[in-house]
Design goal:
The complex is a heterodimer of chains A (333) and B (75). In chain A, 44% of the residues lie in helices and 19% in strands. Chain A has 333 residues and is of the alpha+beta class. Chain A has 2 domains: 114 residues, Immunoglobulin-like, CATH 2.60.40.10; 185 residues, no CATH class. In chain A, the strands form 2 sheets. In chain A, strands 2-9-8-4-5 form a 5-stranded mixed beta sheet, with no helix packed on it. In chain A, strands 1-3-7-6 form a 4-stranded antiparallel beta sheet, with no helix packed on it. Chain B is mainly α. Chain B has a domain of 41 residues. The chains are: A alpha+beta (333), B mainly alpha (75). At the A-B interface, helix 3 and helix 6 of A face helix 2 of B.
Chain lengths: 333, 75
């Protein structure tokens, strides 16, 4: 199994004062501190001031935790003001790992602006942050997601498969309206059914994923609600079909409805999510996974996974179409 | 068949309501399990749902095919 990349889960303490010397316990995830040994460097980084302060000493407790000593720079801060500092750790095996806004820097008193002692900087202290990458293949580490980032290979392809199969349904609905061949109608209805099945799987898996990352089974998100509405529209398609007895009439009305349903699908799943901000990745003007969400190590698995799930969907669709034809054959006999 | 589906749906619904009725902030047993191991159990839960769903669907197709087979034997 490809491991997750490393990252920093937590630091302690989370608050420090200017000009202090602090000893920070850094807790890593999937890090190899012990293996990296003396190559570990740590920095405090204050982005707003473009200030970097390096650790004067780093001691390794185990693979997942180190203790680093920092001198918090002397910054001019009024009494109730504060700044955030990121903690960056670099080692030869994991490359750079970072925790954003890890430590809040406050001011104890109004007038403190002690000069930083020059002896603080020891010889192994580098003022520039090294920027190296991990030496092993890994999936991106994201806080909140952690290992559940692997759901990308399961949850997302469900929707890809659903889109593909629903598109097949649309194509055969149009084809039916041109030829009035009931064989096309069979393909259209079975494709809708299989498409709905994959859509329902996508909703359930999305709900589970949301619960343990966003914190709720259902969030009022454009894309999530849009997906639910789309499925309801396609449920209505099946109900509409069942309510008409005459075969040709049923097929014709269903085909027209299917075209309308597909335009709604495009609206709800493709257009609206891009017009609104949402928690869901791939929204708010950003058409898909960007480079921060999906790096090359994940693409390597993701694209084959999409093809695989789509083929599975097509196979199920194929079986259902053949079964429907046989049923019809018996029914006519 | 429809009765079976309705029954299983009610069961799943009851399960979900039962799970979501747990207080959100206090770390319940489920929450703790799912979040442990870097949330790897979330991925496992998602994969299991998909596998169970697909197997369920395939079994229902199998049952329908068996009915057709029986009918073919009768004719």
């Amino acid at each position: 199994m490809v491991p997750l990349g490393s990252g920093i889960v937590a630091v302690n303490p989370k608050v420090a004062s200017v000009s202090d010397t602090i000893s920070v316990d850094i807790k890593g995830y999937n890090t190899h501190f012990q293996e990296a040994g003396s190559s570990i460097k740590a920095w405090l980084k204050i982005d707003t001031l473009k200030l970097i302060s390096c650790a004067t000493s780093v001691s390794v407790a185990n693979d997942q935790s180190i203790t680093a000593k920092f001198h918090v720079p002397s910054i001019k801060l009024s009494k109730n003001d504060y700044l955030f500092a990121d903690v960056v750790v670099n080692d030869s095996k994991d490359g750079n790992v970072m925790l954003d806004e890890a430590i809040r820097i406050t001011n104890k008193s109004d007038d403190t602006l002690a000069a930083m002692s020059s002896s603080a900087a020891s010889s192994n202290c580098i003022d520039d942050i090294k920027n190296t990458k991990a030496t092993y293949l890994h999936f991106p580490y994201r806080s909140i997601l952690y290992e559940s980032i692997r759901n990308l290979y399961f949850h997302v392809p469900m929707w890809f498969t659903m889109m593909l199969i629903i598109t097949i349904s649309l194509v055969y609905s149009i084809k039916y309206l041109r030829t009035f061949n009931l064989n096309d109608d069979i393909i259209a209805v079975e494709a809708s059914k299989v498409g709905i099945f994959f859509g329902v799987l996508g909703l359930i898996t999305g709900s589970i994923w949301a619960r343990f990352t966003w914190g709720a089974w259902w969030v009022n998100d454009v894309k999530v609600n849009g997906a639910a509405v789309t499925l309801l529209i396609y449920f209505a398609y099946l109900i509409l079909r069942n309510s008409i007895d005459d075969e040709q009439k049923r097929a014709r009305i269903a085909a027209v409805y299917s075209i309308i349903a597909f335009t709604m699908l495009v609206l709800f799943l493709i257009i609206f999510p891009r017009m609104n901000d949402s928690l869901h990745p791939g929204n708010g003007g950003n058409p898909g996974f960007n480079k921060y969400d999906l790096d090359s190590s994940m693409r390597m698995v993701f694209y084959p996974a999409v093809i695989g799930w789509c083929l599975l969907g097509m196979w199920i669709l194929n079986i259902r179409i053949r079964m429907n034809r046989i049923t019809k054959y018996f029914f006519e006999k | 068949m429809i009765k079976k589906i309705i029954l299983s749906l009610t069961f799943i619904l009851a399960l979900i309501i039962n799970i979501s009725a747990q207080p959100m902030n206090s770390a319940s047993g489920l929450e703790q399990t799912m979040v442990s191991g870097g949330k790897i159990y979330v991925a496992i839960a998602v994969l299991s749902v998909i596998l169970v769903g697909i197997f369920f669907y395939l079994f229902s197709i199998d049952a329908k095919l068996r009915k057709l087979e029986d009918k073919a034997k009768q004719d």
